[in-house]
Amino acid sequence: MFVKSVSEKFNKIVKNINKPYLVKKLEKDHEVILNFLEKIKGNIKNKNYSKAFHILNEMFYSYKKHILYENNYLYPKLFKKYYGYENIIEAIKEIKDEEENISKAIDRLMIIYEAPWVIEKNHKEFLSDIENFSLILKERVDFEESRLFVLY
């Protein structure tokens, strides 16, 4: 048990040694945002709509801050690094456009579920929307961490 625990910690440290600070930060953001989504689901299932609303707002601001880092640091560096490689630049633009669609989806959630009473009144639809958003976001996170960040 102890050896397994030490081995897991060592592997986690080694995995992060060569990662640039920005990549580490963005990956930590992913973890935090996905954790918020799980907390929202748990609070809805426990009928704590006010807490779910509060966490939704925290997640929204964390997500928007995360996007600011991607838009101001990650994508400009990638565009500069791969300048002249039109096929790579085009792929990066498509990836960025997809992120903008995800941002629109979270904006939509914030508009629709504007208060705890709205969440309570529509808790089944809200839970479904959060579940769908979670799936999309998890897929996006997996893609970014395995395919996009390696370009950085």
TL;DR of this structure?
The protein is an all-alpha fold and 152 residues long.
Question: What is the topological layout?
Answer:
Blueprint: H1 2-17, H2 21-45, H3 49-81, H4 86-112, H5 116-121, H6 123-148
Helix pairs in contact: 2-3, 2-6, 3-4, 4-6
* Relative helix content: over 70%
Computed Rg:
18 Å
Which percent band covers the strand fraction?
A: under 5%
Backbone structural class: mainly alpha
Spans with pLDDT under 50 lasting ≥5 residues?
Answer: none
Largest sheet: none
**If helices are DSSP runs of H or I spanning 4 or more residues, what is the number of helices?**
6
- Average pLDDT rating: 92
How many strands appear in the DSSP assignment? Answer: 0
**First CA to last CA: what distance?**
36 Å
- Global outline: globular
Order of helices and strands: HHHHHH
Organism: Caminibacter mediatlanticus TB-2
Domain Hemerythrin-like: 23-149
Protein name: Hemerythrin-like domain-containing protein
